[in-house]
Write a structure and sequence with these properties.
Number of strands of chain B: 0
Number of helices of chain B: 10
Shape of chain B: flat
Strand content of chain B: under 5%
Order of helices and strands of chain B: HHHHHHHHHH
CATH superfamily of chain A: P-loop containing nucleotide triphosphate hydrolases
CATH superfamily of chain B: MetI-like
Structural class of chain B: mainly alpha
Number of helices of chain A: 10
Largest sheet of chain B: none
Distance between the termini of chain B: 55 Å
CATH topology of chain A: Rossmann fold
Radius of gyration of chain A: 19 Å
Number of domains of chain A: 1
Helix content of chain A: 25-40%
Oligomer: heterodimer
Structural class of chain A: alpha/beta
Largest interface: A-B, 31 and 24 residues
Strand content of chain A: 25-35%
CATH topology of chain B: MetI-like fold
Chain lengths: ~270, ~300
């Protein structure tokens, strides 16, 4: 057992001591030379939920999108520093982005199932894009992914219905299933419940806790209670003097919300700003 | 807390003032509404007048027996009302637009995809050219078709020359419509595809293009229905044959072409016939665009 100041729970484990699924070293992201996030360094513990919190403009989403190289699409965006997935440097390690992104899935802020596809087609879209054609494989993957996303029972009778016929919460769980179907090691979630009602939000939070048995989750959230409920490790970012996001504190969630090391973290979690 | 007399006075004053404000606002609102209606009336008068005239003069022409099924006749002084029909122009128009579509739709859509997807310098240049061509006078396309197809390719006056003129005319329109439809697809779908490990080309082809298809198809339909009524690009090249023709190399007539001819006639009966042809063209555009909108709206509903 490790001792972390301020925590007395004997069950407590320090996620920082667990094996890392991803490692960030001095990661900075800039757009047209303007730095948006600067010098972020921490390890993402495997099979745990890591939350990125902080006020608007602190660079949470920007940082998240650097983890699956989604900034590659943006003209003028540049990522410096080192990001490791296991032992592989995702920018310099020569790993093709298509392979990288099938190992690191993503769920977006608003549910975005592909509008022209059915529920089934959405669930297996990632596999089809990666060349899987065999129907038995696709069928099995669809059932498994939809089951993992807590959606199978409500959609198994209407797999050929359009994805748009689902409610917002169901659509978001379909997006989670779509990401899970390609069996990623890491799942990035960019404020996945910000467009959902409290009940749908609760289901997705419960899902995250269940899912971390098989994937590592990194979630960006505006909602501090959500970070406190679902995450094991929390990284708090804040916009610095020059409007670039900076890492203020990365602590086990229990500690960050009970006895933060930095005064600014305390001010933020107590709602004094942001 | 007790309410003093002073507070009550202030409240009364405020109430009176808000009543006055409300009265003034109601008055201004009424004046503005009246002005809006006046403006709408002025805008609507010419439109309604055109449609009224089109129906009043056109309907008697198109209900005349044989209007759609017989060839045009030259009226004589003995039979000044013997104008015949427009069967050749109807077939000619259909043939011209079908051949034009075969040529322009694939190229225009591909060009639109390229414009929407590419960020290269060449794409920007192409975009400027496209925008210019959308606004270019349509007679220029006729002149171009005349020069290229009729003269240099020695095809002569023909349906294919007219199709060529129309195709060049709608090409930039199709490219622009496709580009807009693709750009209107929210970037989050593209990102979702890439985030699944799909190649950029797969993402464009399997996600973005299907999502844009409704917009692209309505763009195609609207562009072509508009092109059916275009006169200038075919005027110089189609030949104006008084016989049914549909082979690309044959000279033919077309509805707008025949209008152009008839209106120059000395016979009032022929001049009058132009209203019938105009009604057919406007009716076709109306039906096609109405159907396209209906289809797009229904498709959208399924996807939402």
């Amino acid at each position: 057992m490790t001792s972390v100041s301020g925590i007395t729970d004997p069950q407590f484990e320090d996620p920082r001591l667990l094996p890392a699924a991803m490692s960030l070293r001095d990661v900075s992201v800039a757009f047209h030379g303007r730095v948006a996030v600067r010098d972020v360094t921490f390890d993402v513990p495997a099979n745990r939920v890591t939350a990125l919190i902080g006020p608007s403009g602190s660079g949470k989403t920007t940082l998240l999108r650097s983890l699956n190289r989604l900034h590659d699409l943006t003209k003028g965006a540049s990522v410096s520093g080192t990001i490791l997935l296991g032992d592989t440097d995702i920018y310099q390690g020569g790993i093709p982005t298509t392979v990288l992104r099938s190992r690191i899935g993503m769920v977006f802020q608003r549910p975005n199932p592909f509008p022209t596809m059915t529920i089934y087609e959405n669930a297996v879209a990632g596999l089809r894009f990666n060349g899987v054609k065999k129907k038995s494989v696709l069928d099995a993957a669809a059932e498994s992914a939809l089951t993992s996303a807590d959606l199978w029972d409500s959609v198994k009778q209407r797999l050929n219905a359009h994805a748009a016929t689902l409610s917002g919460g169901e659509q978001q769980r379909l997006c989670i299933a779509r990401a899970l179907a390609v069996e990623p090691e890491v799942l990035l979630m960019d404020e996945p419940t910000s467009a959902l009602d409290p009940i749908s939000t609760k289901r997705i939070e419960e899902l995250m806790v269940e899912l971390k048995k098989r994937v590592t989750i990194v979630i960006v959230t505006h909602n501090m209670q959500q970070a406190a409920r679902v995450s094991d490790l929390t990284a708090f970012l804040l916009m610095g003097e020059d409007r670039a996001g900076e890492q203020i504190e990365v602590s086990p969630t229990l500690k960050l919300f009970s006895a933060p090391e930095d005064q600014r973290t305390l001010d933020y979690i107590q709602g004094r700003f942001g | 807390m007790t309410v003093t007399i002073k507070d009550a006075e202030i409240r009364e004053h405020l109430r009176e003032r808000s009543v006055a404000t409300l009265r003034r606002r109601t008055y201004i609102s009424g004046v503005m509404t009246a002005l809006c209606w006046l403006a709408i009336t002025f805008a609507a008068v010419p439109l309604v007048a055109v449609i009224y005239q089109l129906l009043r003069r056109g309907i008697p022409v198109i209900v005349k027996s044989g209007f759609f099924t017989t060839l045009p006749q030259q009226p004589t002084i003995f039979d000044a009302n013997n104008t015949g029909g427009v069967s050749n122009a109807l077939v000619g128009s259909l043939a011209v637009i079908v051949y034009a579509a075969l040529f322009a739709v694939p190229i225009g859509v591909l060009m639109g995809v390229y414009l929407a997807e590419s960020t290269s310098k060449f794409a920007s240049l192409l975009r400027i050219i496209t925008a210019t061509m959308v606004g270019a006078p349509s007679i220029l396309m006729g002149l171009f078709a005349f020069e290229v197809v009729v003269q240099q390719m020695h095809v002569g006056f023909s349906i294919i020359a007219g199709s060529f003129g129309l195709a060049v005319l709608v090409l930039p329109v199709l490219a622009t419509a496709t580009e807009i439809a693709i750009r209107n697809v929210p970037s989050t779908y593209r990102e979702a595809g890439l985030a699944l490990g799909a190649k950029p080309s797969t993402t464009s082809l399997k996600i973005v293009l299907p999502a844009a298809s409704t917009g692209i198809v309505s763009g195609i339909i609207l562009a072509l229905s508009r092109a059916v009524g275009e006169t200038a690009p075919i005027l110089l090249v189609i030949g104006g044959a008084y016989a049914i023709a549909w082979h690309p190399n044959q000279a033919a007539s077309a509805l707008p072409f025949q209008m152009f001819q008839d209106v120059q006639s000395n016979y009032p009966s022929l001049q009058n016939e132009t209203w019938g042809i105009a009604l057919v063209l406007v009716g076709a555009v109306f039906i096609i665009s109405f159907a396209a909108r209906l289809w797009a709206a229904r498709k959208k509903k399924v996807q939402r």
